[in-house]
UniProtKB/TrEMBL annotation:
This is Uncharacterized protein. The lineage of its organism: Bacteria, Pseudomonadati, Pseudomonadota, Gammaproteobacteria, Enterobacterales.
């Protein structure tokens, strides 16, 4: 017997009970918001920290850290991926292309966790939180993202009992 375990997460179509449970599991009280992709030249999928840092240096604005929410309702799967967007003149810009070519994301701001630049070569970040059938299967853990070069980074767990 073959069991299909392939998960195909997408942006949730609506803010449902699973999304609210995920946000509560992150310890947040903020409301998720949908953002469309703002296409900016020379941005790379998977490099939201660098994309936003470069944009802000050139154009101004503030980095807003939080979580992109993805779900595969058919599989009972939902997750949050740590992400950054830009707030400029009261407008939010999501400038990082997606590997799955989604044109919008569901984003929830998180100002409770340490985030941003750690030093010239490293960032504070967080691992994904994953929920399957309303059970938290993986909790978000503090990470250090160390840039090795323009194309490669190393993910290093930061072991701590407190929020980093």
């Amino acid at each position: 017997m073959k069991i299909n375990t392939r998960i195909n997460p997408k942006t949730p179509k609506k803010i449902n009970g699973s999304v609210r449970f995920l946000v509560r599991s992150l310890g947040l009280k903020t409301t998720p918001i949908y953002f469309s992709l703002t296409q900016i030249p020379n941005t790379r999928a998977g490099y939201c920290f660098n994309n936003c840092e470069d944009y802000i240096k050139e154009n101004g604005g503030d980095a807003i850290y939080g979580w992109m929410i993805w779900e595969d309702r058919k599989k009972g799967f939902i997750e949050a991926e740590f992400h950054v967007v830009i707030k400029k003149e009261n407008q939010y810009l999501d400038i990082t292309p997606r590997y799955n070519y989604e044109d919008k994301i569901l984003f929830v701001e998180d100002n409770t966790r340490k985030s941003g630049r750690m030093d010239d070569e490293s960032w504070y970040s967080w691992s994904n939180i994953k929920i399957v059938d309303n059970y938290v299967s993986e909790m978000a853990e503090a990470l250090k993202i160390k840039e090795l070069n323009h194309e490669n980074s190393e993910v290093i767990p930061l072991y701590t009992k407190e929020k980093a």
